[in-house]
Structures are given as structure tokens and as C-alpha cells.
Model the fold of this input.
Amino acid sequence: APKAEESADKSADKAVEKAAEEPRPASRFGRWRAEREQQRAAEIEKERERASRQAQRERLRQDPGLDGLRAEERPRKERAPLTRARKLLYTASALAIIAVLYVVLVFFSPLLATQKITVRGASLLETTQVEQKLEPLRGVPLTRIDEKKVRELIGQDNVIRSVQVESRPPHELVVTLKERTAVAVVKQGDTYHTVDSDGVSLLESATQPDTSVPLVRFSGDDPQTSAEFRTISTALSAMPSELLAQVKEASATSTSSITLTLRDNTTVQWGTAEESELKAKVLLSLRQAIAKRAQEENSSEAQTQKVTVYDVSAPRVPVTR
Done:
């Protein structure tokens, strides 16, 4: 290679010198011949440059210190086109990696860890006590908390009818309690029980609790099996909260003789549990009308007899005494 390069250099130099020394011929053939000589000299120059580059590559390849060709001079290998199976394999691998990352970030990462617990809807239970029972959930990712786990931690199945869990990323858990509705207080032995319309005991106390629901007296000991209690609870459940808060006691000697005692010590003859909603509306209207009349009579200093009994057992023809 070095000899070929040296020979090419000499030939090119001679051709160029010869072309430069020769005078430019005047004839057409002479000019054509001169142009051919110049083209030949240019081709020889290109060949020399190519041989020089080839020789340089050979020296680099044979040099042990360079470990073959330099990276920029190495020939690039063409990549074989991806087959359909390989494309599917790459796609499946990418999806698997994404799925693993999603599971780790959502279900095990502290990015969604529970830091704040808000309890709503607690009236029979104390909110602070419920929050204390839910303390084990702090630090647990929101995505791993469900209603079953919350229900197990709170307990109180006799008080709570259902639980609703709401996650508010990144760190808040809202627990909404739907408690059973207390409609009465019953006394069993020496213990007072706050019960719902089914007679399920919600709270117990040694003394009569100060609540807005009435004390119910009935024959028998178990409200869940007493027909009189079921009749009374049906009537109480149909009352609006405004009227229920005015009832002090409720009793029944049979399923057709419900009697209510209001907090102002007036008596209400309720009768059966049928048409209880209508009876409640009639009773409220009667009390409002009598209260308005009493105000008018007080302003005129007139003396009227106070109503002590309301009979709404026949709600379309109520009677006051």
C-alpha cells in the first residue's frame, strides 16, 4: 500500500508538471488533448487520495494500541427488521412493567398514605371514639381501605346500619356512618335501653337517658317480640321529628289503644297505628291552632279552659277536651 501510494503520487506530479509546462496548443485537436491530460491528472489525484485513506485505515487496523478501527470509522451494521412476534413481546413486556409500577405506586407507595380521617353522621356514637378506633388506618394507602375493614374496626353493629367510605387523595379518608334511628327508650329490669323501630338496643344506661325520644311502656319484656311495642314504634316512626320531640311517654294495653303523654303533660288518644302520618299532621295542626287561640285570649284577658286531651284516633273528626 505505501509503494502504491508513492507511485501514484509520482505519476500524478509528473502529469501535472507536464501539463503545466506544455504550452497551450492552438489547434482544436491540441486543445482536446490538453483537456484530456488535465482530466487524467485529476483522476490520478483522486486515486491517490483514495489510496492514502485506505492506507491510513490499514495502519489504524493493524495498530495494537487502537484496538482496530475507531468507532466513527467502523462500518455500521444494519438492524434486521422486527418481526410481529418480537413486537408483541416488546409490547407485552412494556405493559407488564407499567402494571407493576402502577400496583407499587397505588397500593404500596406512601404517596397515597392516609394521614387525615374525618368521621361524619355520628350521633349515637361519639365522633372522637370512632376516630380513635380508626387510628390503625393511618399510614395505609387509601386504595387498600374498604368499607368492610372500616366496619370491622368500628364494630357497634347494633348501632351502625351501614358505612360509606370516601377517599380524597392524596391523604384524606372520609367515613360516613348511617346509624339506626332511635325511636324509643324501654326499661328491661333495672336497665334502660335506647332502641330503634325494630326493638334493637342501641345504647344502655342505668338511669333514664335524657334524649328526645319517649319512654315506651308495654306488656312483656322483649321489645323485639312484643306486638304492643311494634304498634307503638310504627306510630312513632311515622311522626315528624318536631312532634316526636314533644312526646314524653307512649304506652299501649293492646294494639288498638296507643296513648301518648306529651312533655306539657297533655294526653293524646292515638288509637291504632293506622293512618299515623295523618294523625300526626292533625295533632300538630290542633296544637298550633290552640296555641294561637291561647295567645289571642291572653291578650284580651279572657279566661278559657285549657286543653288536656287530644283524641285523634279518628283523624278526620278529632276531639279535644
About this structure: The first strand starts at residue 116 and ends at 120. The chain has a mean pLDDT of 82. The first helix runs from residue 2 to 21. The CA atoms of residues 59 and 203 lie 99 Å apart.
